[in-house]
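Hi W.,

Here's what went into the run:
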Amino acid sequence: MSTPLLDVRHVRKNFPRSEGNELIVLDDVSLTVQPGEIVGLLGRSGSGKSTLLRLIAGLSAPSAGDVEYQGNPIHGPAEGISMVFQSFALFPWLTVYENVTLGLEAMELPKDEIRRRSLAAIDLIGLDGFESAYPRELSGGMRQRVGFARAIVVHPNILLMDEPFSALDVLTAETLRTDFLDLWSEGKMPIKGVILVTHNIEEAVQMCDRIMVFSTNPGRIVSVIENNVPRPRNRQDVAFAELVERIYVEMTAKPGRSVGAIQRTDRNLGIDLFLPHVSTNIISGLIETVAAEPFKGHADLPEIASELSLEIDELFPVAETLQLLHLAEVAGGDLRLTPEGMSFADLAVDERKRLFARHLLAYVPLVAHIKRVLDERATHMAPKSRFLDELEDHMSPQSAEETLRSVISWARYAELFAYDDTNTAFSLENPT
Amino acid sequence: MNQKFIAWSKGSRGAPTRFDVLAALLVLGVLVFLASASRGVLAPITTLDTTPISLDPWALPGYVARTTLRMFLALGLSLLFTFTYATWAAKSQRAGRILVPILDILQSVPILGFISVTVVFFLSLAPGRVLGAEFAAIFAIFTSQAWNMAFSFYQSLRTIPKELVEASKSFRMSAWSRFWQLEVPFGMPQLIWNMMMSMSGGWFFVVASEAISVGNTNVSLPGVGAYIAQAIAEKNLAAVGYAIIAMMIVILLYDQLFFRPLVAWADRFRFDNEPGAIAPTSWVYDVLKRSTWINQTRRSVRSGFSALARTFKHQTPKILLETPVRTSHLDWFATGLLVFIVVLCGYKAAWFLAPELTWADLGETLGQGFLTMIRVFVLIALASVVWVPVGVLVGLRPQAARIVQPIAQFLAAFPTNLVFPVAVFAIIRFHLNPEIWLSFLMILGTQWYILFNVIAGASAIPSEMRAVSENLKIRGWLWWKKVAIPAVFPFYVTGALTASGGSWNASIAAEIASWGDEHVRATGLGAYITEATNSGDYHRIILGVVTMSFYVLLINRLVWRPLYYYAERKFRLE
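Here's what came out:
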C-alpha cells in the first residue's frame, strides 16, 4: 500500500474543566485514509466524531497523539483539506459564484484561473444558472450543492464531510448522495479521499468503503467494518440489509462498551448517569408499536427505525431509556419488551403513570435522589442549581442541563414532583 | 454557461445613462458641501468673536452644513473606534474582561456634563485656532455615538456562527480578510441600526456643544446650536422657528441621502436565510447602483482593497483557537487589574475633589440626583401610559404603522433642545411652575423611543396569535393583560431603557433654561451640573457628573437589566 493520505495515531482530546478534572471527548483514536477511499465515522451525537473531523481540518489541536497529512504533521488548516458543513456555512451576503470563489481568492490565484475553476466546479455540481443567486433564495439542497462546489473548487486531496445531508429532507438527501457518488465513481472530482461523519447507518453503508463505529462518552472506535457491498449499492440488496443489521448488532451488542450514552457498568448506578432527553410521548409510542402486531413485544431495531422513520440518533436514546427503566431489553440489534413493558401498553393513562413512577424511582437514581431531598426538607422545595452542581462533577454543563431536563419531564409525567422554571426550583406540590 | 456569466458582469463601457448624470450630481453636491463647510476651520479663534452669529435665515444653510459636517466626522471616528475597540474586546478574552465593563461605564456618563471638561483640554491642543473648539464639539458628538455602536459590533462578533468561522479558517483566510469578509459584513445590519440611533442622539449634543461657555471662556462655533443660542439671547422667537424648520429639512435629507441607501445596501448582509421579507428600498441607492461610473469607481476601490488584503496574507492562521487556557488565573489577573484601575481613579478623583468639597456637597448631589431620578421615573411612567396603548393600536394596523413609524423615528432624531426656548417662553409667559413644566422637556425627545419600539413589537405579533385571541373572544382588559402587553414587553423595555438614559442626559439641558435675561430653574442634578459649568467650578462639575453616572449605572443594573433579561426569557416570541 502507498503512503496513506491521512494518518491519525492514538489521538486524544480533552477539555480541562474548572474543577480540575477533565472531560474526555476522544480517547485513543487511530485511523488511516488511503487514496480512493471513503471512510465513514459513525456514531451518536456526543461521540466525538465531529471533534475528530475538526482535528483533521486543523481547526483544533489534539491533546495527545498525531495527525499526519501526506506524512506531514498538521498545524492549522492545511492546504489540500477542505470541508463541507452540516449547516452549509455559506456566506449569506455573497452570491453563489462569490461563495465558490472565496477559497480560491484566499489562495491568491490569478483572476482568470479563479474564474475558470469556479465555473467548472459550479458546472460539475449542477449549479448552472444559479451563479448570481444569493443563498437565501435557494432551497436546502441547492445550498448544500454550493457547499460542495465551494469545497471541491480548491482541488482538495481530502474532502471532510460533517453530516452534510442531515439538515436536508429525505428525498433531497438521497438525490445529493447519489449525485455525489456518481461523480466520485466516475472520478470527475479532484478529490483523492473522503471522510464522512454521519449518524445514519444506511448512509454510511451506502457511501463508505470502511466504517469506524464510535462509542460515546468518551468517543472511542469500537469497531471497524469493511464494506464490500458492490457499487452501485442498492438498499434492497440482501448484502446491504445484512450489513445494516450487522452494524445495529455491533452498536447494541457489547455490554460495558455500549455505543450508547447510557452505560450500564454495574447494578448500582450512581446519580452521575447522563440521561438523554427523550419525550414520554416517544417512550409510550415505541412501547405501543413494539407491543402491537406484527412485533408482539420483540422487534428488530432496523425494522422499527424504518417503520417509525427514526434515525439512530433518535431511536437509540429511546431504546436505551426503555432498557434503563426495565421496560425493555436491548441486545443483538433487537429490542424485547419486559413483562412490565408489555403490560404498560395495555394500561390506561393513570395506571401507566403509576407504573412509570414506580420504575423511575426504582431504576433512575437521580429521580430517587431528588425525591428524597424534597421529602426531607421542611419546605419540600430545592433549587435546581443544587442538583446541577452535583451533576457537573461528573459531566459537562450541557450534559448536566440535558439530564435534568429529562428528569424534569419524566417526573412531571409521572407526577412525582414539580418544577417551576420562573424561580428554577423543584417542589413536591403542584401549583393550585 | 459562460455566456450567462458574461451577461451579468458586462455593461461598464458605453454612453452615460441618466443614472450616471444623477449620480454625478449627487457626488458633486456632496463635494461642494464638504468644501464650503470646512472653510474657516483653520481660522484663528478670534474670528469667532469678530464674526458673531447672524440670525439672518439665509445664513442658516451655511450653519447647518457646518453642523452636519461635525456629525459626519464624529460618525467616522466612532466607526474607527468601533472597529478597533470592539474587535479587540471580542478577540482577546483577557482584554474583553476589562474593556467591556469600561464601555458600560462610559455609556452611563452624561455627555453634556462632560463637554465643559473636555473643551478646555481641546482648546489647549490647538491654541488660538477654531480647530480646538471644533475638536471639542466633535469629541462631544463622538462620545454620544461611539459606545452603543461598539457594543453592537462586539455582540455581533461574539455571535458569528461557529461553522462560518471554521469555513473561513479552513480556506486559510488571513485574520485581515476574515475581518472584512466575514466579521464586518455579519455585524453590518446591527451596526447600521445603531448608527442611526447614535445619529438621532447626536443631533441633540451637537446643538448643545456648539455654544459652550465654561466660566469666562465662551466659544460659539458657527452652527445651528450657536444660532439658537444667539436667538435665545436676543429673544428672537422667529429665528428659533427658522432653526427648527432648517433642522427638520436636514434630518429628512440625512435620512434620504445617507441612511436609506445604507440600509438598502446592508440588506444583503442579513443573516437569516429566509426569503420573502420585504427588502428595504432607497431611490438614492438605486441611482448609485445603476450608474456605471459609480460602479467603475467602486470596482477599482475594491480591487485596491483586495491588493491591500494580500499584503496581510502572510499571517495565514496557524493559531489553533479554543486552546484550553487556565481561565481562572486570567480571571484573577483581569479582575485585579480592573480593581486597581478603579481604585486608582477613585483615589485621583478623591485627591482632586477632597480639598474643595465636603461631605455636605456629596449629600447635596445625591439628594439632587434623587429628585432627578424621581422625575425620570415619573416621566417614563407617564410616557408609557400614553404611548404603549397608542403604539399597540398603531402596530396592529399595518397601514397606520407605515405612516406613524417613520414620524416617530423622525421625532426621536429631532434635537429637542431647539424647541426648549419655545417651551421656556411659554413657561415665563404663563407663569407656570418650572419644577413641573420644565420636567417635560427631559422626555420631549426621548419618549418616541418608547413609541416606535412598541409599534415594532405590536407589528411583530404573529397573525396566528391574533387569530387565537379573536377566536377565543379575548377582549378588553384581559386582552391587554394576557396578549398585548406581554407581546410588546421586550420591545417596550428596550425603548424605555433608551428613553431613561436619554432623559438623564437631557436633564442637564432641561432643568435650567433661559430666555434672554430671564431664567427658570427646576431643582435637580441636571441644574446642579449646568450651574457648576456656568460658574466654571470644576470640582462641582466632576462631582455632579460622577454622581449622575453612578445613578444611571445603578438604575441600569437594578432596574433595566433585570427587566430586560426577564422579558427576554419570558416573553420573547420565537
